[in-house]
Design a protein that fits this description.
about 130 residues, mainly alpha, about 0% strand
Length: about 130
């Protein structure tokens, strides 16, 4: 049984990283949907169609494309580097889920959590509160 301890330990760590990585991205997706739905509600505009076409994009739009469109509507910007990392991680997660056997590395997870943090921090600096009359 002792000969299984090392491989099982490695498998457990790999599985935890894979699960945390996928969950982190999907939590970011849900949080951005909720955030922009709320912003539209406060602004008195229609909520985004998270499945519809995105203006200016002829291919199937990704969630990151949809977030870019919402940022534009609110005149907010997030650094292209941050959005590129989020989109790259989204692509890797889709490959891991649907196509090839891809196992996330600790670096994938760290890159993703740093990009998610940067996204919210950059967005927070652009928040403006106005009172309705």
């Amino acid at each position: 049984m002792a000969e299984l301890a090392a491989p099982m330990g490695e498998w457990a760590v790999e599985s935890l990283i894979q699960g945390a990585w996928m969950r982190e991205y999907h939590e970011w997706e849900k949080a951005t949907k909720s955030y922009f739905d709320g912003q539209c509600s406060r602004a008195g505009t229609a909520k985004p169609d998270w499945k519809g076409k995105v203006p200016g994009i002829t291919r199937a739009a990704s969630h990151v494309d949809r977030v870019r469109a919402q940022l534009s509507l609110f005149s907010a910007t997030i650094s292209e580097g941050t959005l590129a990392i989020l989109d790259e991680q989204r692509n890797r997660i889709n490959v891991a889920k649907h196509e090839d056997e891809y196992f996330a590395t600790e670096q994938d997870y760290l890159d993703l959590i740093n990009a998610v943090s940067a996204f919210w921090n950059e967005l927070a600096t652009q928040e403006e509160f106005t009172m309705s009359r």
